[in-house]
Amino acid sequence: MDGLKDDARRAERDVLLTYVRMARGALCELSPSDIRARKLPSAMNQIGLIVETTESAANQIMDQVSEILALPGDISPGAYREAVEARCMSLMEACAFQDLTGQRSTKVIETLLHIEHKLGKLAHLLGDEGDAPPEEPEADVLLNGPAMPGEGVDQDEIDRMFG
Question: Over the stretch 98-112, which tens digit does the pLDDT of each residue have?
Fold first, then answer.
């Protein structure tokens, strides 16, 4: 009888050992050190550059439009056209920011998809595949920045409140 119990314990231990080895392998594959040291800082830098590039382009666009609007009304049509065309070229250059921000956004999305994939594999291994309810956001988080499309308060509602 003790031999059967020993066999059962040994089999149970082997199953647990296999599970622990698989979990350890999945954790190693997740590469948390690499994600933390390289991927996340790179993604955060890309987001910072997106903000800077977008801000710079917006400022350049507003400056050029202000200069066009400030052109004197009494200059010759040729001089007016030349001044507007020069500023329009600058406006077109400023609009090229969208290409850079698109490339940087793609890098951030790839990083997040990589992390999501690795976490999904780990969750599968650990048997945690269910949809957990999202945590309630902190009050100060709700006040930071614009809402994602379809979330937050509709602009028409805000206009009605203040209108």
Answer: 888 888 888 889 888
Please report the DSSP string for 84-150 in residue order: HHHHHHHHHHHHTHHHHHHHHHHHHHHHHHHHHHHHHHHHHHHT--S-PPPPPPPTTGGGSSPPPTT
Report how far Cα 162 is from the mean position of its chain's Cα atoms: 32
pLDDT in tens, 2-33: 778 888 888 888 888 888 888 788 777 777 77
How deeply is 27 buried, as exposed, middle or buried, from its count of CB atoms within 10 A (0-12, 13-18, 19+)?
Answer: middle
Where exactly are the structural domains of the chain? 9-127
Contacts of 75 by beta carbon, 8 Å cutoff, 6+ apart: 83
Q: Cα separations (Å) of 161 from 46, 142, 151, 154, 155?
A: 37, 19, 18, 11, 10
Which amino acid does the sequence have at 34?
A: D
The first and second tokens of residue 49, run together, are 């550059």
Please tell me whether the overall predicted TM-score, pTM, comes out greater than 0.90 for this model: no
